[in-house]
Structure formats: C-alpha cells, structure tokens
C-alpha cells in the first residue's frame, strides 16, 4: 500500500555557504535537486550577513538562489549589533518575508556573539514577532577545548569531538533558554545533538516556556565512532558542530522526538567534499564543519522512527513537514494537502527498500555520512507545485523554477506573550511611592 503525504520541509540548510575557508559543495540547484529526489519540497536556508550587513547578505543570497528548482525561504543570522542591524531586522521582517533570526553562541572569532548581543537580539525579535534561533554551544569553552587537544597532540578528527563535549551544548542551551525566558520571547534551538541539551529543553517546556527543539537526522541515527576511523577522509566527513555524539544520545533524541519533547527534524545540510575536508589533515580545527542530509532525511526518519514503531504515520508528516510550516507561519500554504495549499506531495512506498551511497546520491559531494545504509520506505514520486519532479528514479527539474516563500511574523508561538508580559508587570508591585523622612 502506497502512502501519500505532503512534501517535506527542511528547516535547516546551508547551500552555497562560505565557511572556514571553503564553500559548501551544493548550491541552490544541486542541493534542491537532491532534496526533491528525497521527498523534500521546500527548505529554509540561512543568510549570512556580509560584514555584518543584513541587506548585503540578503542581496548575495538572492543572487545565489536564482538557480533554485524548488521553493525555499530564508532565516537570517545576526553576527554583530548596532542601530543599523536593528533597523535592518525591521526591514527583513516587514518587507523581505524573513521571520527568524539565528544567533551563534559558538565559532569564537568568526560568527560567535556574546550574551549582551543575545539579549538585544532577543528583545528585537520579540518586538517584531520574529523567532529567535540559537546554535547552542559555549564558544569560549569550545575554544579552550580545542587548545587543550592540540596541546595533548590530538590533531585528528577525534579532537573535534573531544574538544566540545555534551556539557558545552547543555550549558549554552540552558543559558539561551533562561535569557529567552527573561525576555519572554519564544526560542528555537537548532541541531539538538545531546541528552544534555534535550533535557534543558524538556525542563523549560514542562515549565510552560515556549522552546522548540530541532534534532537533525545525523544526530538521530549516527554515532561518534566514525570520527575515530584510522582513515582521515572517512573520519573527517563526520565532523560537524555540535558533534555527532555517542549512540545513547541518538537513542534519547529519538525517544524525545516520539514524545513531543523535540518537535521537528532538520538536516543542517552543509556538505564539503573530501578535498575540502582535507584542509584540516594536520589540524582538526581547519576541517570545514558540516555533513549531508537533505536527500536522506525523509527516508531515514521513516526507516528509523516509523518502521520501529516509535512514531505514527501522522507524526511522520508532522515532524518532517507540518510542524515546520506552523512554526514559520506558512501553514496551510505548506505542510498540508488541501484546497488552496501548494501542491507539494510525495508518494512513499513503505514496502520498498532504499540504499544510500555517494555513487547514486544527487549531492555534488563525493562522500555521504550515511554510506551503505539500507532501509524500508522509499519516496517513489515527488510532486512540487503540481509538477512531477521525481518519478521512476529520475529527476525532472530545471534552474529558476523554484519560488521564494515569504514568511510572516507572529506565528502561533507568540500567542499569549502579551498576557504573560502584563501578568509579569502587575506582579512587580513597583515602583513604591516613598516619602522622605523629616527631622
């Protein structure tokens, strides 16, 4: 029996991304073609400012995305803070269709921001009805961890994982959650990779705080054993941040996803080929961080979560599509099959098998972190905007056919924020009217 569902939405990708002295191997055509072959019909990519300028960054990404062959949206990263950035955030939300801003708590000396900027950014996001997102790792501690590994003579890919243990992800996640709570604004934690971070999200949600946790497929199904492989190219292809953890973390993240503690699955698709990864052959700090996943996500979530009975078919649609559409305020245009919605549909055969290989995938990367994975549940047809783009293992796509999807502010996550603020203000019982004592 075939299963029909709305096309997948990947909330976390980096196409044509300049990072760590390289540029991701997939651009807005090859990455999107790979996505369509895997049943994903929309993705949301991260715009990186140019010299801190949001407008310049957006202009650069608008040029990059002209070759798109499927629908896409944008998040915006914030890498510095001043009045110009504050004004540009208003333009992004009110004129450019961007309703989310990402703050990197890691990558010291590059993208990392401090707590003061984080607070200013959260405050601005709240006023605009935009969702604050964080890459939650303690960047100062990770930098110290890297230095420690080098001093110990650990220069290979395993040094990357050892330099940024789960406690650094847990600490930053807790800090971001507490600061977002202080500002009373919703928070989205990207690529949740550890039990430490997941437990902080769980605790916050139980207390009523609006926190979204996004695991990525590599963190759900892989483990850290690969970075210890004696072959450098094999080990280096698994280097990403936060790192892929020990198997128990992935199992816990799967359970958290099945229980609703984590809400949706992304990929952090940010692939570099083996030549690019080899830039760090003598120093793990120079290995470009990132793995693939945009083509594999829908298959792996089905095989790992539905086939095992951890989630239902309905939950599968929710965590791969519908919840993302709701969070970023594009539902029911996306994430639904109904009159008035975009005709983004997949047909998945639960009884058909798939095998993942760099030889057959559609990414331009010469490696694949899921190499050799065999599973059940194959996307046999992908329909994007009413057009059949994947059928009989053949892609039918062309550059320029994708559309930019504007995303409006004030999603459902902002419901009740005003009432909570009013309740807080009324609870202060201040300022107190005082009088001066006379003598």
Task: Record keyword descriptors for this entry.
17% strand; 7-stranded parallel sheet; globular; alpha/beta
Structure description:
The protein is of the alpha/beta class. The chain has a single domain (3-411), classed as TIM Barrel, CATH 3.20.20.140. The protein contains 15 helices and 14 strands. The protein has helices spanning 30-37, 54-64, 83-95, 115-128, 139-151, 157-163, 166-183, 195-206, 217-221, 232-236, 247-259, 274-277, 297-306, 313-327, 417-427, and strands at residues 3-6, 8-13, 18-19, 22-23, 40-47, 71-78, 100-104, 131-135, 187-189, 211-213, 345-355, 374-384, 387-391, 394-395. The strands form 3 sheets. The chain has a 7-stranded parallel sheet with strand order 2-5-6-7-8-9-10. It has a 5-stranded antiparallel sheet with strand order 1-11-12-13-14, covered by helices on one side. Strands 3-4 form a two-stranded antiparallel ribbon. Strand 13 and strand 14 (394-395) form a beta hairpin. The longest helix is centred in the middle third of the chain and has 18 residues, at 166-183. The radius of gyration is 22 Å and the shape is globular.
What's a quick, concise take on this entry?
The protein is α/β, with parallel strands linked by helices. The chain has helices at residues 30-37, 54-64, 83-95, 115-128, 139-151, 157-163, 166-183, 195-206, 217-221, 232-236, 247-259, 274-277, 297-306, 313-327, 417-427; strands at 3-6, 8-13, 18-19, 22-23, 40-47, 71-78, 100-104, 131-135, 187-189, 211-213, 345-355, 374-384, 387-391, 394-395.
Shape annotation: globular
CATH topology: TIM Barrel
Q: Radius of gyration over alpha carbons?
A: 22 Å
CATH class descriptor: Alpha Beta
Cofactor: Zn(2+)
GO molecular function, one term: metal ion binding
Protein name: dihydropyrimidinase
Catalytic activity: 5,6-dihydrouracil + H2O = 3-(carbamoylamino)propanoate + H(+)
């Amino acid at each position: 029996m075939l299963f029909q569902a709305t096309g997948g939405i990947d909330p976390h990708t980096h196409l044509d991304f300049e990072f760590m002295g390289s540029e991701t191997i997939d651009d807005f055509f090859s990455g999107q073609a790979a996505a369509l072959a895997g049943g994903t019909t929309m993705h949301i990519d991260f715009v990186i400012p140019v010299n801190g300028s949001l407008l310049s960054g957006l202009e650069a990404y608008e040029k990059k995305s002209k070759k798109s062959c499927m629908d896409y949206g944008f998040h915006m990263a914030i890498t510095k803070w001043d009045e110009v950035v504050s004004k540009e955030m208003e333009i992004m939300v009110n004129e450019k269709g961007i309703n989310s801003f990402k703050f990197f708590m890691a990558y010291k000396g590059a993208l990392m921001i401090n707590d003061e900027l984080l607070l200013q950014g959260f405050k601005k996001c709240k006023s605009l009805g935009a969702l604050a997102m964080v890459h939650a790792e303690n960047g100062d501690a990770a930098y110290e961890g890297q230095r420690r590994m080098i001093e110990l003579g650990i220069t290979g890919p395993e040094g990357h994982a050892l330099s940024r243990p789960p406690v650094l992800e847990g600490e930053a996640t807790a800090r971001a959650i507490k600061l977002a709570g202080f500002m009373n604004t919703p928070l989205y934690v990207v690529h949740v990779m550890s039990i430490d971070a997941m437990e902080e999200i769980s605790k916050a949600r139980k207390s009523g705080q609006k926190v979204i946790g996004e695991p990525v497929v590599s963190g759900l199904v892989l483990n850290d054993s690969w970075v210890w492989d004696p072959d450098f190219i094999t080990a280096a292809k698994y280097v990403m941040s936060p790192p892929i953890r020990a198997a128990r973390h992935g199992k816990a993240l799967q359970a958290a996803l099945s229980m609703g503690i984590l809400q949706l699955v992304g990929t952090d698709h940010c692939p570099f080929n083996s030549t690019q990864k080899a830039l760090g052959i003598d120093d793990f700090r120079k290995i470009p961080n990132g793995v693939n996943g945009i083509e594999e996500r829908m298959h792996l979530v089905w095989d790992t979560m539905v086939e095992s009975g951890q989630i239902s078919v309905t939950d599968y649609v929710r965590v791969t599509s519908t919840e993302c559409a709701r969070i970023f305020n594009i539902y029911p245009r996306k994430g639904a099959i109904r009159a008035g919605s975009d005709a983004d549909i997949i047909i998945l055969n639960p009884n058909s098998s798939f095998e993942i290989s760099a030889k057959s995938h559609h990414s331009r990367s010469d490696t694949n972190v899921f190499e050799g994975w065999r599973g059940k549940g194959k996307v046999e047809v992908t329909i994007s905007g009413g057009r059949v783009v994947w059928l009989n293992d053949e892609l039918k796509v062309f550059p320029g056919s994708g559309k930019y999807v504007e995303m409006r502010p004030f999603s459902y996550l902002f419901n009740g924020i005003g009432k909570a603020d009013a309740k807080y203000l009324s609870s202060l019982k201040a300022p107190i009217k005082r009088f001066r004592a006379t003598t």
